[in-house]
Amino acid sequence: MTAPIDEEPAALLAALERGESLPARWYTDPSVTERELLHVFRKSWNYVGPLAELAKAGDYVTGYAGAVPVVVVHNDKGLAGFVNVCRHRRHLVMKGRGNASLMQCGYHAWTYDLAGGLRRAPRSNAEPGFRLEDFPLLPIRVEALGPFVFVNLDPNAPSAKDCYGPVLDIIARSGIDLGTIQLHSRGDWKARANWKAMLENYLECYHCAVAHPGFSAAIDVRPDVYTLASHGWFSSQAGRVRPAALEGKTKVELYDVRGEVAESQYHFLWPNLTININPGFPNLSVDVWLPDGPNATRGFSEQYFGPGVDEGFAEALIAFNKQVAQEDDDLTDAVQQGLAGGLPDRGQFLTKSEQLVIQFQKMIVRAMSGRSAV
Question: Where is the Rieske domain (predicted)?
């Protein structure tokens, strides 16, 4: 059972209206993280991987909905999602991603079909009253949205399409064809800051001119040009490529920003998926941010490109993204150190520049109080 959060939701929401941030302990207290796993992640859509990796019968991918291991498989009826935990001793059933005709636990060889039904449990025929049909894998909701596949543990949550559907049209306006992009690489990562602190950094570009010299040389981050927009369950940022970058006249060395994509876009999909599009040859990357206790975050990144990408361009853009990510990690590491001391208890936002951060914190408060985040 999770410990209660002392602050009244109405008071927290009123403080956020004034630009006052959440209290410091919301970023350092293990009981808060425990509640987030229950009230945020178990009641939201969680990205698990690209639809292209689930194209054939038997294809599967594994992932997490908060701390809950999940698996999505392509069976004879389409996509199916399950809690990826054996009904016997709760060992993980499937690992990684690939193709399989059956799902077999590596502990005692309990074996499930692709519809989640238990088909074999060694020695169970000697167990009085044991019936295979009583112990299927626990089903969960799964939904594809464009090239992205999500799962949700909450049977009553709105559909992924209802939550995020319009983002597909916004992405299309950037020059990206979501039907043709191809996965280039994937990698896991860890960071030393609370997951909320990291996403709050993502949700504003107020810091970009100070902390991201390369990013700011490529993209016009002036507040009258760089746009912020809220769409309920997701939010978007967009910026135009700088003319000096197109002409190769920046003081900072950049990747080649010339190409079909002239508008950068950065989308946040509640609660923990970000989608990034940079100027140049068609490209898209995603990041998933998962709590790793209150003071750390783990996740994974996927990089996509349009067909026919030059490997030199791909390597240069990936290096650019890694540089920006390292600069952000340095910032959020320092934020987490400041939060750990607990003083001051509240920060003060600039409501005209950090409105998406304020909206995110409001969503957290509403979700943690048992309400809909939107």
Answer: 46-151
Q: What token pair was written down for 49? A: 């991987």
Q: Give the pLDDT score at 337.
A: 98
Model pLDDT for residues 124-154, shown as the tens digit of each residue? 999 999 999 999 999 999 999 999 999 999 9
Q: State yes or no: cis peptide before 69, omega within 30 of 0.
A: no
Residue 224, SS3 per DSSP: coil
C-alpha span between 357 and 296 (Å, rounded) = 19
Q: What is the pTM of this model?
A: 0.96
- Rg over CA atoms, the chain: 22
**H or E segment at 74?**
strand 68-75
Q: How is residue 206 written in tokens?
A: 């107020």
Pair 212, 298: CB distance under 8 Å: no
SS3 143: strand
Domains in the chain (CATH in brackets) are 46-152 (2.102.10.10), 165-345 (3.90.380.10)
